[in-house]
Design brief:
166 residues; 9 strands; 22% helix
Length: 166
Amino acid sequence: MLGKYENFPTFIHFLKKFSSTCNIKQLQQKLVQTLKELNRKTCHFEEISIPTIPNSEIIFEFGIAEEENFNFLDEQEVNRVLNILGKSSLDFFCVIRYYKYNAEKKTALKFDYYMLRTKFAAKEIEFQVFHKQGPHYITPKELVTMIVNKINKTTNKKILHEKTEN
């Protein structure tokens, strides 16, 4: 089933809820489009976090779950996903690739591998993040914050607001 990973871990490293001004389908559409736009985009470490590696770049790769696998979120896959919007959750895989530059030489470093489950309710999204492996240069919280900030930049007004737990 597209959007669902059968073996999503039960142990979660980070969980955060946000309220939304959008309905579930609109929010899912914005999330999927944002992840697609982030795919293979190069950014500087400073754009996401306090750099633990000077002179470095980051490249993200996102995929959506389909039973036991994940499919890279390209234009074709996004079109498939847009046909199933409205589900209560969507699962994603994220690879964060790190590169360091020394005197014009690009060196690949170890990558971080994350699994994200996004749960949707009326006017709400919950991010559950599992860090599968890697050096943990970007934390699960920083990953979610980056995604939420990118989604909020897609519209004229902020659509996701952090929920505070009582």
